[in-house]
Amino acid sequence: MALVSFATPFLSEVIMSKLWKEQTMLMVRDEAAITQTYTDSMHAFQTLNPPAGLSYCHVPCMLIAPQAVCVMATLAEVEALFTHVLEELKTRNYARSGVTDLHVQQMSEHIAFLSVSRVRYTIDGHERERLGEMYTFRKTDDGWKIVVATMHDPQTILRLA
């Protein structure tokens, strides 16, 4: 009897491990859609119109930056943050951003990470600053949405597979 009770958890682990591997192998790879969602969200951001980027955000969502952590439970809170950030960028003559490096790693059918390095440019075309960013995406019925955005030093971008 002791042997059976020992073997049952072990067999359960083996079966679960095999099922996990099969699910992982069957996972729909969606890196192109995740990358497109990010690209579309950056184009919306560059319009400097706060509501334009709302549809790319999951609610609730979070922004982690060196200065603060913002947790937003409603679209109104996301829009208020976007308004604040975009107003700040306007005062610094922000015109657009360019991606210098981008890596995506899908972790499951519904979770993915995107690591990016960007350059912000001023209205007159000069480089303003470089940024590193890490995004966590979640797939919903409406497509991939940003759940967490983390700002960091540009030289520490993750080279995801």
Overview of the structural elements:
This protein has 161 residues and is an alpha+beta fold. It has a single domain, classed as Nuclear Transport Factor 2, Chain: A (Roll), CATH 3.10.450. Helix content is 35%, strand content 38%. The chain has 3 helices and 6 strands. It has helices at residues 2-26, 31-45, 75-91, and strands spanning 57-64, 69-72, 94-106, 111-122, 127-140, 143-152. A 6-stranded mixed β-sheet has the order 2-1-6-5-4-3. It is globular, with a radius of gyration of 20 Å. Mean pLDDT is 88; it is low at 1-6.
List keywords for this structure.
alpha+beta; 161 residues; Nuclear Transport Factor 2, Chain: A
Outline the secondary-structure elements.
Layout: H1 2-26, H2 31-45, E1 57-64, E2 69-72, H3 75-91, E3 94-106, E4 111-122, E5 127-140, E6 143-152
Parallel strand pairs: 1-6
Antiparallel strand pairs: 1-2, 3-4, 4-5, 5-6
